[in-house]
Amino acid sequence: MANATSSFWGPVTSSHEWCEKNYVYSSYVAEFYNTISNVPCILLAFIGLVSSLAQRFEKRFSVLHLSNMALAMGSVMYHATLQHVQQQSDETPMVWEMLLYIYILYSPDWHYRSTMPTFLFLYGISFAILHSVIRFDIGFKLHYVMLCLLCVPRMYKYYIHTQDVSAKRLAKLYFATLFLGSLCWLGDRFCCSHISTWPINPQGHALWHVFMGFNSYFANTFLMFCRAQQREWSPKVVCFMGILPYVKVQKPKTHTK
Question: The whole model's pTM is what?
Answer without folding.
Answer: 0.92
